[in-house]
Amino acid sequence: MPLAAYACNPAQSRGRRFPEVAAPTRTEYQRDRDRIVHSTAFRRLVYKTQVFLNHEGDLFRTRLTHSLEVAQLGRSIARALELNEDLVEAIALAHDLGHTPFGHAGQDALNACMADHGGFEHNLQSLRVVDALEERYPLFDGLNLSFETREGILKHCSRANAEKLEAVGPPHLDGRGDVGRRFLAHTQPSLEAQLCNLADEIAYNAHDIDDGVRSGLISLEQLQDVPLVAHFYQQTLTEHPQLTGRRVLYESIRRMLSAQVYDVIAATQAALQTAQPASADAARQCAPLLCFSPAMRAQSQELKRFLMKNLYRHAQVMDMTGLAKTVVHELFDAYLAAPQEMAPGFAARAAAGAPRAVADYLAGMTDRFAAREHQRLTGQKLLG
């Protein structure tokens, strides 16, 4: 597929932190994607929770299946907008590599543990995974991904952390700085990175409806109060009155996903027509261009509010996340007091900075490994 002028062109990449000879059969972004797929952190995503903890059911989404869904949606939209599909896929597959076990509950707990040591944020941790923590290559730590993939991974960043990234990261040959620069200059990431942010939102809204109904915590009747869902539910039943059970839900979600994808394509094409960015860097200087229409944005926000109230803050979910937070807090304290209980590489690093070494070790755990470690170290079985 041809690339638009505003798309990221791998032949014009800002490069890698450690220069490498180009691959003979793959572009820079294809190479990034392949490195991500073969990484240890990527494989761990299959046992990291999305909303429901890993032991709660075999069919609920995990971080891995979520990342695959984001990549699929992202590539579909990228193709229509003539953006770089390979870069979108690489960012999508890597965007959750830094997530802790137990989802956002684990992140919140680990951030509280690290409050006096620089805090913890999963986007920054995802970058840390690909820049430093993966150990696969003889000449450098991390995966040595291209600037554009790393830029897309870092979705959020505080000014303090952006300044640290700029201070320690080697400047690229063109002098435009590292991935923290845009948070200081108040510019945007590439359009491919902006697309991944939207695809992430579309994916989790849809699959959390599915998982929520499957779990029994939300019902199809409740969803009739959400216009974005109710519209496609009624449309499905009108066209297929014989449908019952999960087929109605699946078809409603499928139609909702399609409508959101087409809305993003149309709204973004209109924004691009107005802004007329002549290059990928010109697009970075514009206001965000990947967008929903105002009407779809409002409906998406209403759906998010519904899920927050009825699913994410459901008493059953809150009870389980409370236990998960306890596991993370008690593991952090246990490893801080006895670093030798960690894997040898992390235990050795603890001498130079125990809290961050503990945070890195904890963030890399799967749900079930964290639960087992907690039981081993405390004698309590809180989960699983």
UniProtKB/TrEMBL annotation:
Protein name listed in UniProt: Deoxyguanosinetriphosphate triphosphohydrolase-like protein
Positions of transmembrane segments: none
GO molecular function: dGTPase activity
Signal peptide: none
Record has Hydrolase as a keyword: yes
PROSITE patterns: HD
Annotated Gene3D superfamilies: Hypothetical protein af1432
Parts forming coiled coils: none
Key words of the record: Hydrolase
Keyword Hydrolase belongs to the record: yes
Top-rank taxon: Bacteria
Similarity-based family: Belongs to the dGTPase family. Type 2 subfamily.
Domain HD, first and last residues per copy: 63-205
SUPFAM superfamilies attached to this UniProt entry: HD-domain/PDEase-like
